[in-house]
Each structure stands twice: as C-alpha cells, then as structure tokens.
C-alpha cells in the first residue's frame, strides 16, 4: 500500500467518514459478566438467580437497542490476548513476500490476504484468517448442484515463533466465551440455554487478525467499509487506537466504540437476526482509519456448521401472530457466495441476508 491514494480504496462521498462522526458521547452498553464467571449458566431463564436475571435483562436490552455491547470480567485470561496481539504484530511486520507464503487462494480461504473488498470498494487492511475447528468444510459451488465440498486446513507461518500456539490458545478460550454469550442470548429469547448449541457442532467459526496500516487519506478510505457481520455472533478484541464505528439505530449516527483494556465487543450477526425473527437485528459498522497509527483488531466470527439451514426458530413463530419473516438458506452456500464477492471486485451487490426476507 503506497502513499498515493489508489482509487480502488476511495469510498463514494456519502460513505466517507466525517470529522463529526467520531464522538463517543453515549457509547454501546458495557456488560459485566461476573455473575457467570464462577456460577453455571442456568438451563432456563426461570431457574436464574437474581444476579443472572439482571444480566439477562441487560443482554436483552443491548441486543434490541444496539445489536452491540462490550463485556468485562469475561473470563478470558488477559495474557492470551496479549500473546496473540504480539503474534499478529510480528506477523504483519514481515515482508509482503513472506506473508504471501501463507496466502489465501480460490480453494483454501484461510491464511493471509490484503485485497479484500467490502461492497466492492477495497478495504485499507491486511488480514490473516484461521479456523477454530479443523478442517473447515465448504461447498465447492455456491449454486446447485452443491454436493461437492472443499475441506481446508489452517496455514501457519514459520515466523514469528509461537504464532500458531498463541492463535490456538486464544481460539480455545474465546470459543468458550462465544458459547456463554450464545447461551445467554438463547435465554433472553425464552429458550433453553443450550437450544442453539447444536448448530455449532462442526462449526465454521474463524478468527481474523486485522491490521490497518496508517492511511494518508483517512477521509477518503475505510479500514472496512460499512457492513453487517453475516455469522451468528462476533467477539471482537481491539487495541487502544480505536476506529470501530457502529451505526446507532435510534438516529443513524456513527458512534465510535471506545477501547476498554481487556474487554470484548460482542455483536449480533445476521444469523441471530434470522433465528430471532427480527427480535434482534445485526447492526451496521465500519472501521475508520487514521494517518498516524496502525491499528490491530481480532474478530472471532462464531459461525454454525456449513450444512445448517438458517431460518427463524420454530418456537418463536406463530402462523397468525408472528409469522416467519425469512425463508431458509444454507449457511455454507451463503458464505461461499459472500467470500467469492469479497475475493473479487464484482459489478453486482454481494449477497445479503435481506435477499431471504419473505415478501409481505
Ligand atoms: C470485521 C470488522 C472491526 C474492527 O472485520 O468484520 O467489523 O474493529 N472489524 O476491526
Ligand atoms: Ni464486521
């Protein structure tokens, strides 16, 4: 990425960040998970002790009002985050030639990549992706007949030393956190805590190391263009630089998420929106850049197995009072289509969950 602004990165005027967008006045909710740090999550909301009932009220409100919240006292040891951030810093400091030795390709979507597009504009970032459970399986083709599958393994760089171990330890701990948040969300939907867990057997979750280099024209480009996350949940760690902006539902303003040391940002993805039949909605977000400091972030995209048919949960559907708002779609084919459109600049809009919304 040179210092002359390549037009591939330039956002349309209406999508560029404005200097007034950066206020942190009233941020996304901060939720203290200490009630579940040492006590188990109850099997159903009715069996919850008062501290956990209070927590469920907070989670429900945050999911409805923002689709985003930050968690503290989450139980993931700080050392694991420090280690993976150090590994990420060491990896991205390698030469492009070294990084490209573990580069993603059309068959294996895992590894290094520096050409991602969001909504057909190039993102000012480089990434390294690895999956939480190997191998990850995806249909070869997004369109029927889709009964052939590719199975991919992680690609690990030789340098920096300890990279693989730092990534794997972090994945194990954040995976546990992801299941806890999932169970809390199930309870807030009036479901048994473990109602959604089965969808994550053979999960296709992946962790992304994001590196956003300083950008000479932060008013023209974005680190990640505006988007919603397409999986179930995202558990995001960010360093102290800041740059994640969330679109506030009440007035459509972009709100900067203030970095809090050793916290995680949780956001509801499109799959929870569909499962909950729109009780919860995924929120639009983006990454703004700055001209001085590089920024690192680590999202954990908590995704079900490729064969899961995503559709509103039957317990939440009532033909008369609350009919299903979405048709079922296959997660593997959806992600395959999305990955393909992020891989190449296409002239068409990439696949979005609202394409499965039923006509009213
Ligand atoms: C993403 C994303 C936010 C960040 O990668 O989907 O929204 O702060 N990242 O890097
Ligand atoms: Ni995102």
UniProtKB/TrEMBL annotation:
Residues 1-23 are annotated as: Disordered. GO terms for molecular function: dioxygenase activity; metal ion binding. The keyword Oxidoreductase applies. Keywords: Iron, Metal-binding, Oxidoreductase. It holds the Pfam family 2OG-FeII_Oxy. Residues 203-304 form the Fe2OG dioxygenase domain. InterPro entries: DIOX_N, IPNS-like_FE2OG_OXY, IPNS-like_sf, Oxoglu/Fe-dep_dioxygenase_dom. It comes from the Eukaryota. Signal peptide: none annotated. PANTHER family: 2OG-FE(II) OXYGENASE FAMILY, PUTATIVE (AFU_ORTHOLOGUE AFUA_2G00750)-RELATED, OXIDOREDUCTASE, 2OG-FE II OXYGENASE FAMILY PROTEIN. Belongs to the iron/ascorbate-dependent oxidoreductase family. This is Protein DMR6-LIKE OXYGENASE 2. It comes from Cocos nucifera (Coconut palm). The lineage of its organism: Eukaryota, Viridiplantae, Streptophyta, Embryophyta, Tracheophyta.
């Amino acid at each position: 990425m040179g210092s002359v602004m390549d037009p591939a990165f330039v956002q349309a005027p209406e999508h560029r960040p404005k200097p007034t967008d950066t206020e942190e006045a009233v941020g996304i909710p901060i939720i203290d998970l200490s009630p579940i740090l040492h006590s188990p999550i109850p099997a159903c909301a009715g069996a919850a002790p008062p501290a956990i009932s209070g927590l469920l009220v907070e989670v429900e409100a945050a999911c409805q009002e923002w689709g985003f919240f930050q968690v503290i006292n989450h139980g993931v040891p700080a050392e694991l985050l420090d280690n993976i951030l150090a590994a990420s810093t060491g990896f991205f400091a390698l030469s492009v030639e070294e990084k490209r030795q573990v580069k993603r390709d059309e068959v294996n979507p895992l590894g290094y990549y520096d050409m991602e597009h969001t909504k057909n504009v190039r993102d000012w970032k480089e990434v390294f992706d690895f999956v939480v459970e190997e191998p990850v399986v995806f249909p070869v083709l997004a369109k029927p007949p889709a009964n052939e599958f590719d199975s991919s393994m992680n690609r690990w760089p030789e340098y920096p030393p300890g990279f693989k171990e730092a990534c794997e330890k972090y994945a194990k701990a954040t995976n546990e956190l992801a299941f806890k948040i999932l169970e809390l969300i199930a309870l807030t939907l009036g479901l048994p805590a473990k109602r959604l867990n089965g969808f994550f057997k053979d999960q296709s979750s992946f962790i992304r190391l994001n590196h956003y280099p300083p950008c000479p024209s932060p008013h023209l480009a974005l680190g990640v263009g505006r988007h919603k996350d397409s999986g179930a949940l995202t558990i995001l760690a960010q360093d102290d630089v800041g740059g994640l902006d969330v679109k506030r539902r009440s007035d459509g303003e972009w709100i900067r998420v203030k970095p809090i040391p050793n916290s995680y940002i949780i956001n509801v993805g499109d799959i929870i929106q569909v499962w909950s039949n729109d009780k919860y909605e995924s929120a639009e977000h983006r990454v703004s850049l700055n001209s001085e400091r590089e920024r690192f972030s680590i999202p954990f995209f908590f995704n079900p197995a490729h064969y899961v048919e995503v559709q509103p949960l039957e317990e939440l559907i009532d033909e008369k009072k609350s009919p299903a708002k979405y048709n079922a779609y296959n997660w593997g084919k959806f992600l395959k289509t999305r990955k393909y459109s992020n891989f190449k600049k296409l002239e068409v809009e990439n696949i979005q969950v609202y394409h499965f919304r039923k006509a009213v």
